[in-house]
Amino acid sequence: MAKMEVKTSLLDNMIGVGDMVLLEPLNEETFINNLKKRFDHSEIYTYIGSVVISVNPYRSLPIYSPEKVEEYRNRNFYELSPHIFALSDEAYRSLRDQDKDQCILITGESGAGKTEASKLVMSYVAAVCGKGAEVNQVKEQLLQSNPVLEAFGNAKTVRNDNSSRFGKYMDIEFDFKGDPLGGVISNYKLKLERDFSRYNYLSLDSAKVNGVDDAANFRTVRNAMQIVGFMDHEAESVLAVVAAVLKLGNIEFKPESRVNGLDESKIKDKNELKEICELTGIDQSVLERAFSFRTVEAKQEKVSTTLNVAQAYYARDALAKNLYSRLFSWLVNRINESIKAQTKVRKKVMGVLDIYGFEIFEDNSFEQFIINYCNEKLQQIFIELTLKEEQEEYIREDIEWTHIDYFNNAIICDLIENNTNGILAMLDEECLRPGTVTDETFLEKLNQVCATHQHFESRMSKCSRFLNDTSLPHSCFRIQHYAGKVLYQVEGFVDKNNDLLYRDLSQAMWKASHALIKSLFPEGNPAKINLKRPPTAGSQFKASVATLMKNLQTKNPNYIRCIKPNDKKAAHIFTEALVCHQIRYLGLLENVRVRRAGYAFRQAYEPCLERYKMLCKQTWPHWKGPARSGVEVLFNELEIPVEEYSFGRSKIFIRNPRTLFKLEDLRKQRLEDLATLIQKIYRGWKCRTHFLLMKKSQIVIAAWYRRYAQQKRYQQTKSSALVIQSYIRGWKARKILRELKHQKRCKEAVTTIAAYWHGTQARRELRRLKEEARNKHAIAVIWAYWLGSKARRELKRLKEEARRKHAVAVIWAYWLGLKVRREYRKFFRANAGKKIYEFTLQRIVQKYFLEMKNKMPSLSPIDKNWPSRPYLFLDSTHKELKRIFHLWRCKKYRDQFTDQQKLIYEEKLEASELFKDKKALYPSSVGQPFQGAYLEINKNPKYKKLKDAIEEKIIIAEVVNKINRANGKSTSRIFLLTNNNLLLADQKSGQIKSEVPLVDVTKVSMSSQNDGFFAVHLKEGSEAASKGDFLFSSDHLIEMATKLYRTTLSQTKQKLNIEISDEFLVQFRQDKVCVKFIQGNQKNGSVPTCKRKNNRLLEVAVP
């Protein structure tokens, strides 16, 4: 919206009517036309008083930007155009400023946009509340819980591509400042699965949605799970359960006849069953039997019966439903653990309820019956709270309250939920009754008990007015709800209400090695068998609705009614018949009539006077008295009938919308008159301003022109004077120049004559000197030639003499050499063999080294290849070279290690020295890396309290089994090793149970067998040894003993004694008990068991 078009009321620039309370005339046709007109102009929100109607546009609209959030922030509800942000802001400010708990109820049928509406409410609240690192983390977790719940709780249906299959109620908790602290999600199971067997779990065609990137959505869900607080192994477990549910849909059965004539069922393809068993960790024979047989227990007797094909398919679908339902409940509980408020201070609460609306189909069954029952309860509380709110406002404003006639649907709610003769009570009674129970017997019972009820209709009842009603089939009954009559097919009511899961399937699921699946079926534990019949679906639903109603009555309600404009999920299409159907069952016209029963419009005095003050001369343009007095003067001036309005304490109440529209028409006409007046004044001001500007401009131009003309005249006079001066100065200068040139010519003539005379004299003297010099040069040349001839003769003589002396020296040298050779010839022959041997040996060694250079093995320390020895005499040299090369490449390999790798290899080397050839468990630990921190304490919010209690670095964090000193039974404990202490903590709560300083640890004992038992001996007399030594069992014994040994050596500078023996003593309180390891067959596979024989002996059976 442009800056000049800022709206101060929803009445400004209104398309249609923004508040249905003001609609005139009020009927179904005008109601739909108003919605359609606003929908065609992209106005999808409309008010009914404080209720927001939202029409799904099936396209993105630019009305949810951060700018829109700021526009609606801290604004009055009726100040701007209808928007879901206005209702969200009103609810948040009431919670923050008035300390009132709020609830936002979002209703509508599938595809009407309820889920998107709830996300918009949460995103707005997250945007306007406080900031900060912790607050932003809480907001991010609350917002990211939606993608997780949508991924597992929504599905593609015929009506909606992202239909939520559950009823979600989220309580967002705030502190006194209005900053979010956390939240709690309640899964009321208000949406039941229509027909589970219709879904083909692995059919890709039914799961495709145009324009949706499944891979991107999957990455979004995994990221959201990580933000909410799911560990990696938890996310993988959830996906494994989902895969198992999908695989269950592929199992098919075939009939077989037994010898005794009974029919039984068999699984067609056991490969599908095998894949499910691999995912869940269940023995294939156990699950196959659970699909083929059913065991019924009564007191001390068990009866096993075979299942036919129909019963087997029922068991398969029941298992799939229960498995996925329980998984979803586990997901909700797990999310609640992460997003719940950590503080115990008093909290303010805002609830958001996303629930399905009233359902009227061609075929209505048990699901539509209980959903419509829930909507009856919501309609009941809605009417009560709306009337209560109206009455409270009238009393607060001192307006006389008039009784409002409306339809009270409490009689319909009593027909359904009455504990004695209600439909649900009779359905439960029929399900629990011994003997043959069918849907027909249930209908007969309804006909007997409810025949006289004015809202119950059945053709088989005692009431004669329905006997000939052909629109009412014999196998149906009809209830007159507040939204209209609904015909229910009684077929399936009993089976759907029972909703039983065979105990054999529960016990099979409990036997799964998959931890998550096992935890989902606690009733399958044989030690906790409960023969009591589980509650029916109807009773569970009734309890859920009662809990929901009780919760809603403690909060201030805010309503959003969602409407689907068409069944094609397309934009710009408004199907009036479909919208009319939704308006009827949502009771919107009834809502408007209740709202208009008293006064249709109310407004505070200040904005009312500000909006209409221009209609009265006394109040325009400013009213200096109280706002109420100004409104009274205004209404008296306009001669509005007194019966059309009333004055409250802070608001003006207008009874009929026509009065308000009359005020709006008068205001519009007055604004046009004011606009004309403003235009007239503006045009006069503009013309006067233009004239004054032209006058001022003319004076300035004239002044500038006169200045320019004087400057030009002055420049011409000055230029003429300069020209005359220049001519006179030029004439004088030329005259002086002629005189100076004449004087200069006379001086130059004298100088030239003198120069010629001096030149003649100089040339004569030069000729004389040249002649004299020529004679002296001839004498010098003759003398030089004579001296050269003399020098050459002397040089020739000296060369001849030197040549003779050299010849004598050469001859003498040759003679001396000859004498030496003759003297030493006999010695040379004697040493020739040794020198040849040394030379040959040197060449062989040189060749050996050159060949070794080309045959060197790789630099891997485990490479044992080495070139063969070429000569026997090089054997020792060959071995030494091999040893030196191996040491060198080992050093090169070690130089590549990081500090972390060195530490790992040092620990592995220490473990080898301690346990190699001593402990049978050691070889299996060689290939396992020492991780230390097996529990992600820093990441898991479950152990936040434990993490805060430990300030030292954690070396080992592992779950071990602590052996009870009295009976030998094991208890799970968290084993923590730090630099100075050994700690034991409770696995569930994270509370520290024991803390032992390392200086008090004296010895560690263990057997030589392939088991994980070990004992930690404590120093006698120390505080930690008051209850005696500890006996543990762990899957990482070698790593724990090695790290304990190294840590103790580092802190105490003393080696910890590691005792490996199949029989050793431990101190339990004041007694010494012998722990003895024996070989034995185990009942539970390969897991060692521990048993206390007597006061002095504890036996450990090792497989």
Automatic annotation (TrEMBL):
All copies of domain TH1, residue ranges: 919-1103
Similarity-based family: Belongs to the TRAFAC class myosin-kinesin ATPase superfamily. Myosin family.
Top-level lineage group: Eukaryota
Assigned GO CC terms: brush border; cytoplasm; microvillus; myosin complex; plasma membrane
Chain residues that bind ATP: 108-115
Region Actin-binding, residue ranges: 545-567
GO BP annotations listed: actin filament organization; actin filament-based movement; endocytosis
Pfam families found in the cross-reference section: IQ, Myosin_head, Myosin_TH1
InterPro entries: IQ_motif_EF-hand-BS, Kinesin_motor_dom_sf, Myosin_head_motor_dom-like, Myosin_TH1, MYSc_Myo1, P-loop_NTPase
Cross-referenced PROSITE patterns: IQ, MYOSIN_MOTOR, TH1
Protein name as it appears in the record: Myosin IB
Record has Nucleotide-binding as a keyword: yes
Keywords for this protein: Actin-binding, ATP-binding, Calmodulin-binding, Motor protein, Myosin, Nucleotide-binding, Phosphoprotein, Repeat
Myosin motor domain sequence ranges: 15-668
